[in-house]
Amino acid sequence: MFFHRQELQHAAKPDKPDAVYARKLQEVLGGQYGEITVAMQYGFQSWNAHLPGKYRDLLYGIGAEEMGHVEMLATMIAQLLEKAPLGVTEGAMQDDPAVAAIIGGTDPQHAIVAGAGARPVDSNGNPWTADYVTASGNLLADFTANANAEMQGRLQVARLYHMTDDAGVRDLLSFLLARDTMHQNQWIAAARELREEGVEDLPVPSTFPLGKEDREASYQYLNFSDGQAASEGSWASGRTPDGKGEFEYVAEPPAGVPAPPPTKPDVRLHGTTGMPGPVEKAMGTAQDALHKE
Which positions make up the signal peptide (predicted)? Predict the structure, then answer.
């Protein structure tokens, strides 16, 4: 069960209203790498975890913290919208809140839909979607995805930090940057520990028999670009990170195989699916009736 304590993990109070910045802050709330995404991602990973103990508890703990970050950002956005001017224009256009909001760079739905509150959307107003969530059931794959989510989120928060001079906003962003630093390190450490303990290994999934894989192609760097500098990287020669092979650089990929000829369905009888569609069935019924007459 979940309990809610009516306090914030960190202060979330701006120095002054700023509806334009409130829109920008929506990105790290409801964007692809925002707090809603990681809260739901870690939640579903924990609920789907088949391995009890420290790894699932890690997911539970960070997931619960991220839900608190959702609340902090929503609280900050609501305060940035409180008594904020509708736009930056003057005159007749300022009398129309929607027009003024668009010209001024704010989100008109903050006022029209949410009543000067935060919304589960990104900075362009696109609704948050569960498509952003990664929860595969494979801990090494998921922890690697989590590290990426924290890296992308911290990158966006760092950019937002330099888009405002508001000391109150910067104070919250500074805290979120610190927590992203911690979480990046936690997911990387957890992924390393999974491998050290033999729970999972590279390549993921490690339980698939390598003998059923086309091993000749497993470690070939097939260069499909006209640039050659990538051959200088550690990914082009030497031992592979999974310790199971050696990289091979192939400057020009081998020739491909001919593509199969295009299919030629009889659309008069079967439509495009290969099975009689509703129109074809109706035509067939009409034809049968004519034959009976």
Answer: none
pTM of the full structure: 0.84
Q: What is the average per-residue pLDDT within 81-89?
A: 67
Q: Is residue 275 part of a domain?
A: no
Q: DSSP letters along 54-71, please?
A: HHHHHHHHHHHHHHHHHH
CB 107 within 8 A of CB 126: no
Residue 70 shares a structural domain with residue 182: yes
Reported in sequence order, the residue ranges of 129-232 that DSSP labels E, i.e. its strands, are 220-222
How far CA 68 is from CA of 5, 39, 121, 191, in Å, comes to 10, 9, 17, 24
Same domain, 120 and 38: yes
* Average pLDDT over every residue of 235-263: 94
Closest CA to 118 of 165, 151, 73: 73
What's the mean pLDDT in 137-160?
98
CA distance 26 to 117: 11
